[in-house]
Amino acid sequence: MALSVSQIASITHRLILPKMVENIFGSNPVLFRLKDKGIKYSGGRVIQQPLVYKKTDAVGSFEGAEILSTTLNDNLTNAEFAWRQYYGTIGITGRDELLNSGKEGILNLLEAKRLVTELTLMDTMGTDLQGSNSSGKALDGLGSVLSDTTTYAGIATADFSDWKAKVRTLSVAGTLTLIEMQKAYGATVVGSDHPSVIVTRQSVFDKLWTLYQPDQRFTDSKMASAGFSTLMFNGIPIVVDSHVTGTDGGNQDNWIQFLNERYLWLATHSDSNFKVVAIPPLKDQDVKIVRILWAGNLLCSNRRMQGVIKTVDPNL
Fold it and tell me: 116 by DSSP, 3-state: which?
């Protein structure tokens, strides 16, 4: 009978490189940026953001003893955001933990699985960050923010005319040009207030790269140091996020987002900010389980300062 273990295999260890390399997750710079500048809150039934929605009526010029208006009108309302919750479960058997212990455990199995779970959780949140919360439990994502028709945070566009994003329709269907970029950007500028980042898919980023002159391809140092490729447009970075809506070349459904992060942030509950919670031992299994928990939501306090082009075909 042939022996199952060869001579070399019986006396030589496998070479295992002491570093785990992920091969499945996409780029996630929007979540990276919003998480980096996120605001922590301690509770509340809902998250409310006061908004100015109307000017004061009793304002104007006058002369002498003219009667001055005392008309009173409401100026303020609230945008309301629900708390959204996310979790990731990590589990290993007692046997796997024993076999992975000591110097023979090149990588800490539980720590490696925690890292994979956290990356998976953030990848899921990155996808939902670009969505429109069709489930009712996910983040109120940019799919809802970047609309000129959708009710958002409990406020309908019909009730508040400025409560909508600037959606740019391309002059030639599907065809992106620098002047189209400028018009979409310009629609979201008020005085010195303008978008702080432009986000799109890799195929659209590549199209933009071809439109630039070589000496215009400047990069943003902060995003570059975090590992994200960038171009610059009007002094702000253009970054690639694989979660942005679109199906790439040949289809007029790819988005370019013009985001003003002054009015856009990730609200996080201070007691559930990627918190690691140990689950009590199971009574009938030798299994160790922990969970990562997060609670919060994406908040936008000014939709009119956000813009989008939704119909780019990078092949044109």
Answer: helix
